[in-house]
Design a protein that fits this description.
The structure is a single chain. With 208 residues, this protein is mostly helical. The chain has two domains: 2-66; 81-207. It has helices spanning 2-9, 13-66, 81-119, 121-129, 131-169, 184-207. The longest helix is centred in the first third of the chain and has 54 residues, at 13-66. It is elongated. Residues 1-24 and 60-65 have low confidence and may be disordered.
Amino acid sequence: MLWMRRDCCDPHPVCATRLLSGRFSGRREACERSKLSEVSRRSLGRLRLVHDLTPRWRSLYTPHISQLPLTMEAQPLEASPREKFDTLLGLLKDNYAAVFDFEFKNVTVLTLLLGWSLASNDARNFLHSHRGIAYCACGALFLYVVLLLVSFWKFYRRSRLTYAQLSKLGYMPTEYFRVRRIQPYTVVSFTVLNWTLALIISAVILFA
């Protein structure tokens, strides 16, 4: 031990350097440890402070946050008067064209049935000999015409509602789109035509 102390106390440059480096390294480690402990104490204090303030922060700011307006809420879309007018006028035109197309198709069907009943002698003889089948055919034909009448009423009602909405909108005068409205006499004329054809076909089936 004495030899080591003497050796270390010897003013040799190598020994002095080792001694100084050991002292400085020890001080450096001590300083780093003290800094780490101080940082850990500060971090722990901050965590405790945040933990203590969290319920208070919630109680203070939650009512204010709940009272804030919902700016991201979806706003209802409102169409312009021009868009409403174009949409309603398109519906009125389509409904007006659809009722004539519907009547043309159904009159074609009834006309074919009338021609078949007049041209086919075998079919008439068969129906005359089987009255039950003839009555069922006439009943089915009248039911078909009644369903056509219901469809015409729906067309008329839809056209009337669309025309009323266009008139209430007031974007243009009613004389510009009044001609596209289904008139009552149109429905009556189509209904009379269908019932006339149905009665003729029934008469041919039962009595011809």
